[in-house]
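Supplementary Methods S3. Input chains for the assembly prediction are listed below.
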Amino acid sequence: MKKIIDILTSVLFAAFLFAFAIAFVLTPDADFSEEENRSLRTFPKFTWERLLDGSFSSDINEYFADQFPARDSLVGIKGVTETLLLKGENNGVLLGDDGQLAVRLFDAYKSRLERTHDMDYYYTENVALAVDALNAFAKSSAVPVTTMLPPRSVDVAVSAFDYPTEISDALDAQLAESIVPEAGYLTDLRAQMESRYAAGEYVYFRTDHHWTTYGAYIAYTMLMREWGMEDEIIPQDAFTVETVERFYGTTWSRAGYKFVGPDTLELWSLGSEDGFTTTCYAEKQVKGEDGKPANVKEAYKTFPGWLNRDYLAKKDKYAAFLDSTHNEQTVFKNDGKDHPRLLIAKDSFANTMVPFLAQHFDLVIVNLAGRMTDLTSYVEEYGCDRVLIVWNRANLIENNILAAIK
Amino acid sequence: MVFSSLLFLFAYLPVTLLLYYNIPNIRYRNWILFIMSLLFYGWGEPLYILVMLASITEAYVFGFFIAKHLPTNRKRARLYMILSLAMNLAALLFFKYCNFFIENLRLLPFLTDTIAPIEGLKLPIGISFYTFQIMSYTIDLYRGQTDVQKNFVAFGTYVTLFPQLIAGPIVRYRDVDDQLMTRTETFDLFGSGTRRFVTGLAKKVLIGDAAAAYYEYFKATDAFADSAAGAWMVMIFYTIHIYYDFSGYSDMAIGLGRMFGFRFLENFNYPYISKSITEFWRRWHMSLGTWFKEYVYIPLGGNRVGKLKQYRNIAVVWLLTGFWHGANWNYIFWGVYFGVILMAEKTFLLKFLKKLPSAVQHLYSLLLIGFGWIIFSFTDAAAGISCFASLFGIGTSTFCTPTIAYQILRSLPLLVIGAIGATPLPKKIWDKLCTVDWTHIGAIREDGNEEPIRMEQTFLPVRGKIFAVLTTAGTFALLVACTAYLVDSTFSPFLYFIF
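Predicted structure tokens for the full assembly:
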């Protein structure tokens, strides 16, 4: 009997190794992983130099891992195993009630350049630098500034987790204390979202780090009140809601909890969006008249409304709003009239607010994450009447981009 | 290359097995092992193959000289042995310790500007391990405890054999001498090797790496400096991590060796159940302990000299043991730390300890081992001292924060698994299950005894089948789980690489 076990074990072991080895050879290489939303490594370039300095072999390691058969299913098996080991989270993502996910651990920066690894801690000095820049900009700005710092899922879905809120609270307190009144900081955004979440409202996605369209609507109403435009708020029931099922967000991909079900993405509209046009701009270098290179702004993409519906069929459905990420965009009404202009300096949290804000303003949208930080020049160029800064707290903690605005 | 990588498991290993088992002749099988081991070694840094080959060639050639002169001119043979050892040690000293010496010499004011560290000098992986293996051959040869190896490939295979090449166990030449040219690969050996390998992989990937992540977390958040609980967690999880990482690696090495017909000696024997530090060092990294005992301690006179010399011998051995682990002061201090404890135990402490309840003896040992790991894991002395002080609440601002409490709570299951897994308990339970005849449980015994019927043999027909399936399924499940973790993380370097 001992012998049978040994034969069985030996054969199974070898079969397992060879099965994957053969499957690896037989399956064609993929260029992109939708699950991970990134390019996969393909077979690296061979040179003798690269072999000798070890970069070829380290690329091969990555290539082999990226193209490994059944990669996604195996990631799922790890998620299940971690759950069985009662760890309560996987890859830095908390698993809460009703399949609520939230990133707990962040990339944190010790200084402007030195990245430390994942941690749930933030450097108060870094946030202070960002706030200094924000304050300076708000004081010098010729037009009113409003600042919205959307909380992270972990700050909002507090009731779904055992995770303590001391860090979220500390960040809250620091922001409330240090941001000057000129910056128009919406202090009670987190409290609003947190209490609505606790009351069972669908303000944040379970599987994605963004707020839902409904969450964005709440944020919009708060903004309108802040601006004294309370009377113009479009009531919720005026919108028709189209739902897109099976939305698996970024947090879900990172978590590896394949057993957590999808979210529903909502598209809110007041009938047709054809009355609006979105235009994307980029700077292009051309030869000027004097022969020297000069930068010229060029519209490279224009489409009606603000949605690119192609994304709705893909995994990254949130990207439908504003056609994913562009550094400089305008969303204008086609009626030829003059509307007040709003400059939105933002990350992706602002994308779902566009359907609401576009009803009241002509929008000039610049992507802070793409380091479009010279806001004063955009205000002048487009003749904006207001500035809205939308910058998620994960970004605030993780990078130093906001510290560069002027 | 590392064992806990997808490339090793699903490309390198199947190819090596395929080539190896399709060649009938052991000479060519050694060729395969030799070449594949060089590939394994050179995968990250190909140029260092040359360093290793030079060491091998040197010892191989000098082996002839030693063997030639040994019967007639012992002094001559001794000279060749010393020359050979010197060359081997020179390579180790140069690559591993050179910059450490330079940097410390630079602390002398008149040398600061005259010497500079050599730039771009990287440590060839496993050099500490293979240098010691080669030295064991040279010394054993001189002592007449083994014969000269005339086959270069066989000798090269001994040194480069990929299972133990980069992180041990340190296999003495005379322990595998006869296996190099005659060994039989059987299903018996392969099956037990597979189980051993998978166990080791699981120890490393499922427990060792997870403990490392917790350790890193508590260390990175500076939790150890602010909170006493955080400092304890740093110590506890490093203690778990290093055992599962290193003993897991040894298990994998032993298992892989068996797959190719080799039988290596054990390297760990439940070190954390020790009742004294003396016992701990008989159970931890046994191949290194044996090496130092055999080739340093005993040649210096060992125990058979006067008291004073005995202490000198212990001091030398532990200074070297510490320094072997890394070219940094903390490793030297770590060695000295254990040297002092061992001397104290030898003189009076051991006698005193034996009178205490065994729980106290365990606690004493575990604490001293844990303190040792703090010295070991902090190359930055100031941080290490701060962590040590925090254990006792010195310099901390709080005992625990809610976030640290949360982290501790969620790491508890791993802590419990890690603690139980470091004792012989799981093996005992398993063995017991295997010897209980489950087909008779519930049945009334004719002799009126209520104990279940116990079988003499480990596996008997009916129940044997159940355990055959269970054992195999368990091994397979662990293998799948490890693969899943490797896919998920992709990158998990072995800690013992740096030595």
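Confidence is low (pLDDT under 50) at residues 441-445, 455-459, 491-499 of chain B. Chain B touches chain A through 61 residues (CB under 8 Å).
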